[in-house]
Amino acid sequence: CASDSLSLRLRQSLRDLAQQRLSEVERLADRVTIIRDGRTVESGTLDSLRLTEGAPADASLEELFLKAYR
Length: 70
What we know:
This protein is an alpha+beta fold. The chain is 63% helix and 16% strand. It has three helices and two strands; from the N terminus they run αββαα. β1 and β2 form a beta hairpin.
């Protein structure tokens, strides 16, 4: 169906945009806060978030965001 195809393309475009923004934040920010439903889920430097989440030292902000949101 055409509307399903459009919906899928829109979701993919939004996902791509979000990934670009997270990469930009990772490059520019000293500290980040991940908020879910108006509450802080995680907050700190990328290194501290990696430790908190048990993520590898090279984990991206996108990976940390996805771990924190689960």
